[in-house]
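Co-fold these.
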Amino acid sequence: MTGKRDALKNKILSDVAGDLAEIEKALADNLAPRLPLVSDIAGHLLFSGGKRLRPLLLVLSARLCGYKEGYEIVFSTIFEYLHAATLLHDDVVDQADLRRGNTAAHRIWKAPEVILTGDFLLARSLSIASRTKYPEIIEIVAEITEEMSQGEIDQLDKKGRLDLSEQEYMEIIRAKTAVLIRGACHSGAVLAGIDEKRKRALSEYGFHLGMAFQMADDLLDYTADVKTLGKTPGADIREGKLTLPLIFSLSKADETDRKKIEDLIQNPDISVKALNDLIDMLHKYNGIGYTESKAEFHVKKAKKTLDVFERSQEKNILMMLADYAIARNY
Amino acid sequence: MTGKRDALKNKILSDVAGDLAEIEKALADNLAPRLPLVSDIAGHLLFSGGKRLRPLLLVLSARLCGYKEGYEIVFSTIFEYLHAATLLHDDVVDQADLRRGNTAAHRIWKAPEVILTGDFLLARSLSIASRTKYPEIIEIVAEITEEMSQGEIDQLDKKGRLDLSEQEYMEIIRAKTAVLIRGACHSGAVLAGIDEKRKRALSEYGFHLGMAFQMADDLLDYTADVKTLGKTPGADIREGKLTLPLIFSLSKADETDRKKIEDLIQNPDISVKALNDLIDMLHKYNGIGYTESKAEFHVKKAKKTLDVFERSQEKNILMMLADYAIARNY
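Predicted complex below.
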C-alpha cells in the first residue's frame, strides 16, 4: 500500500511540478498587501507547505476544457487565497494550536489581526476573481463563502453532540470542504467557456473529490502521526467534533461499548492510551472501514464524471488525484 | 443650530422615507441564511436602527445618473451587508460593548459565531454584487474589503501611540470609512452606465462625504451623550484610538498641558470628570474647532463635485446629506 501510494504521489508530482512552481510564484506575486504585518501573517500560513490542490484543480480543469488564454495560473490563486482566508478564521474559531505542522497564526499574532488578515485574503481572492470578468466565477466565490461560513457555524453549534447523524456529518463536510474544491474545478470550466454538460461534469468531479478528501482527512486524524499530519492526531475529538468513523461506530456499538466510547471522547484531555483504545473501538465496529468505503464511493463517482472528456494528460492527472485523495498519508 | 439641524434632518427624511422603507424590506428579503443562528446574529445588528446611509447613496447616485432598470434598491443592499460585516468583525476586534445603542453581538453570542456571521454577510454582499453583472462593482467591493481590513489592522497596530500624525489619521479614516461610502456612490454610477467624468465625480463626492462623516463621528465621541450616540462617549480614548481633535490639540499644547492630556488619555478607566477635563483641553487648543473646519472642507469639496450634474431631486438630497454629515448629533 505504501509503495503504491508513493508511486502515485511521485507520478502526480512529476507531472505537475512545473505548474506547482508557477502557482507558488503567483501566490507570492499577487498577495500585494500594503502593510508588512499583513504580509507576515498571510505569508506565515500561505507559504508553509500547502499542497496547492485547489489552484491545481482550477489549472487542470481549465486546460482539460481547452482554455488557451494563458491566465489559468494567476486565476488559480483565487482559490488558494480563499482557502487560506477560511483557514485563518477557522483556526481562530477552533482555537487550534497547529496548522500544517507550524504554530497557528493566532498563537503568534493577536486574534484580531489574524481575523482581519483573513478578510484581506478573501478580498484578494475576490479582486482576482473580478479580473476574470466572469460574474459566474464571482457567484461561485460568494457561494463558497456563504456555505463555508454557515458550515463552520453549523459545526460549531453541533460541537459535543454525541447524536450527530451521518447525514448531518455529510452536510457539514459538503459545506466546509466540498463546495470550495467543486468551485475551483467549476471555475476552470467557466474560464474555458465550455458547454453546460462538461461544466457540470467538472463541478461534480470537484464535489465528489472534496467529499472523499475530507473523509480521508477525518480518517487521518485517527491514523496518522503528528509529523505526517502536521497537527496533533485526535484533534477533532479534543475539539468535540464527531466525524464519520466515530458516528458510524457509535451507531453500531453495543450499550457497554457505546458508553465506553462516549466516556473516552468526552474527556478533552484524551491521553495517547485512551486515543488508542478509541481507535480499537473504531476498528471493532468498522467505523474506519465504513468511512474508507464511503470515501472510495466518492472517488469512483468523481472518476466516472470525467467520462464525458476525451483522453488527455489533464484528465489523466485528475484521475490520479482522485485516487490519491484517499491514498495520501498527510 | 439644533433647530436648523432638525429641519435639515426632517427634510431629508421626508424626501427619502419611501426609499428607506424599501431598503429596509430588501435587507430583510435578501439575507436568506440557511441557519436560524446566522439569521439571529446578523439580524441583531442589521435591524437595530442603522441609518442606511450607504444603500441610500447607491440609490440616489444611480438615479442621479439616469438609471432606470429598477434594481437600485436590491443592489443597494450590497453596501449595507458589507458595512454590517465589517462592523461585526470590528466589534470583536475592538471588544466593543455597545453598537447602535444595543449590546454588541459578541457580548450575546460567541465571538467565533459573530466572526463567521460577518463572513456570511460579506458573502451575501458579494453574491448580490455578482448579480449586477458588472465586474467593476465586484472590483469596488474587493477594494473596499482590502482597504478596510488593512485600515483596521493599521489602526490596531497604532493603538496607544501618542505621536500619531494627522496624515496617519487621515489614512486610517480613508481606509475604514471613506472607501466604503465612495464605493456605494461609485457603484450607483456604474449601474447607470454613465461616462467616466460623472462616475469620477460621484466617486469623489462619496470620498469627501465619507471623510467628513468620520470626522463628525470622531467629534461626537467627545461631544455626544450615550443616548444620542448609541455607545459610550470617550470610547475611542478607552480603546487607545487617537482621533483628530486629540492629535491636533496634542500638537499645539504647551509642555505642561501636553503631559496632562497624555496622563488623562493613558488611563483606560477614564472617569466622566477626566473626560470633561480632556474636552476642555480640546477646546482650549482648538482640536474641536480644527476638526470641524476640516470636516467642513470635505463637505464643501463633496458638494462642489456635484457641479457636473444638472439640478434634480437626487442632487438636492445629496447636497443636503453632505451638510447633514457634519450637522448630525448621532
